[in-house]
Amino acid sequence: MCGIVGFTGTKQAAPILLDGLSKLEYRGYDSAGIAVRDGEKPAEVIKEKGKLKVLADMTNQGKAVKGTCGIGHTRWATHGEPSAVNAHPHSSDDGNVIGVHNGIIENYQEQREKLIKKGYEFKSQTDTEVAVKLVDYYYKKYSQDPIEAIARAMVRIRGSYALCVMFKDFPGEIYCARKDSPMIIGIADGESYVASDVPAILKYTRNVYYIGNMEIAKLEKGNVTFYNIDSEVIEKPLTEIKWDAESAEKGGYEHFMLKEIHEQPKVIRDTINSVVTDGKVHFDSVNLTDDEMKSIDQIYIVACGSAYHVGMDLQYVIESLTSLQVRVELASEFRYRDMSLRKNSLVIVISQSGETADTLAALRMAKDNGVKTLGIVNVVGSSIAREADNVFYTLAGPEISVATTKAYSCQLVAGYLLALQFAKAREEITDEHYNELLAEINTIPEKIEKILENKERLQWYSNKLINITDAFFIGRGIDYAIGLEGSLKLKEISYIHSEAYAAGELKHGPISLIEDGTIVLSVVTQTKLIEKTISNMVEVKSRGAKVMAVTTAGNYFLEDTAEFVCYIPQIEPLFAGSLSVVPLQLISYYVSIGKGFDVDKPRNLAKSVTVE
Ligand code: F6R
């Protein structure tokens, strides 16, 4: 939610800021702004409601704004409606401090009232303006030292923030502070960068520092100094980013979502190869030993949104392959649940961004309870990756489209490998079965390629769905878990009301919504349950529903019931979710673009939900 960038160097800052913001627009896109300083002169602030293009046009792509040091912001509104006044940067009344912020200041009302009593006036409804003015207040009250002023403000502020500020008295310098919101700092020859996420600066540098929680950084041209909350200088290791810059570009595809759907075979293969060598899963990099796997008797999978749907699928896989009990929990519920966690349990948190506020809080809650944690995370160096006891990195690369596809698929495959290794370590699987299942997992990338080769047929079918107002996804077991994801994909990017139900639940209520022409998308891959699901399809069809099915090649008899059938290649049913989700991703994509929506940036959504 919200993207920030900053640059100080010898080049013109505004085009760099706009370019960086364009890579972060997935984090928020209701308004944008920049503040740029030309030497000693006061900063020029330009901000406007609307997508980044509005700001780019206003500034002639940044060329109209002179200066080599600046900060920028793309906003996803939390406090105050999207408007030019509420857009960042915000500044103190006299322009002494100018700042951009990502996160939420929870006690902003209380701080705002205190500042009003001290004579401050507020132009916007944002919590950010409060943070900026608080820094200004401490700067003027004490030693006029930026680090000390920021540290004092940090102690007073409750909530989460990635904050970048410039002080009038310190031209060419940017000061940054972080707590629970993502922020990285990049360095190149004579240039320093700060951003919410790597793609914003990847074009300029691969050398980054990860600034920790409750830490402060001072950026000068080509030099960065880090401080702890006691204003003491601290050292940080420099990390080299391995992603190539092209992976954060559209690479000839019309949209990031379509590109990311097509990247699935490759990134799944990379994720498998990261832990599978010589026909065996090796978890040395994950740091989870066989003895630990043996001692665990309960798994909690905790996540939000699509990552939660991965957990829903994995519970069937893990419970089928091992004697482990698996509970899948929404992070926003789990974190506030008054319950005792079983001592020998493992909490697996799944997150693409590694920054989702609720998932991070759930992880911390588990750790506070003395329970072992494992993160399945995509973004290297993210908060969850840093705080979890063990990390299994998915190698999806940067995912730009707000609706997840390739990260979801990598999480799912990472979970299969985990399940398999649990079964092996606990001696609950024969070597033969282990080898068979691993061989099946290895076939997933090429089978997804086959599905993608037939996408035109799905596009043709999707065109028929453009004007529908409601859709239902049904399935049983793993097919139900995939229905949940298919339904979320459709609703979030095409704004069509959609619900997913365990097929057996239809008769307990939702069937009353079925009428002439209602669309029911069924996922039918679980061999043991096919007949049961077909009965449910027949029930809705006889009440007027138009039924489509995603099923495994060979189940041609489904054509007797469904008006459109999409076949996926044959695969061990435990892993069918990796294939059946792909046609559902494509259908959602085609419906969204058919309706003329901005598929990569659906309304009201942000890629990384760093507020609860
Ligand atoms: C939906 C989607 C979201 C995320 C959710 C969790 O397409 O992308 O539902 O899955 O916000 O995000 P991460 O995985 O970053 O924790």
State the total count of DSSP E strands: 27
Oligomer: single chain
The CATH architecture of the largest domain can be named as: 4-Layer Sandwich
Helix % is: 25-40%
What bound compounds does this protein have?
fructose -6-phosphate
**Largest sheet at a glance?**
8 strands, antiparallel
CATH class of the largest domain: Alpha Beta
Low-confidence stretches: none
Number of helices: 18
The radius of gyration over CA amounts to 25 Å
- Shape, per Cα inertia axes: globular
Major sheet: arrangement of strands: 3-2-4-1-10-9-11-15
Total domain count: 3
Report, as a whole number of angstroms, the end-to-end distance: 11 Å
The CATH superfamily title of the largest domain: Aminohydrolase, N-terminal nucleophile (Ntn) domain
- The name of the CATH topology of the largest domain is Glutamine Phosphoribosylpyrophosphate, subunit 1, domain 1
Beta-strand proportion: 15-25%
Average residue-wise pLDDT: 94
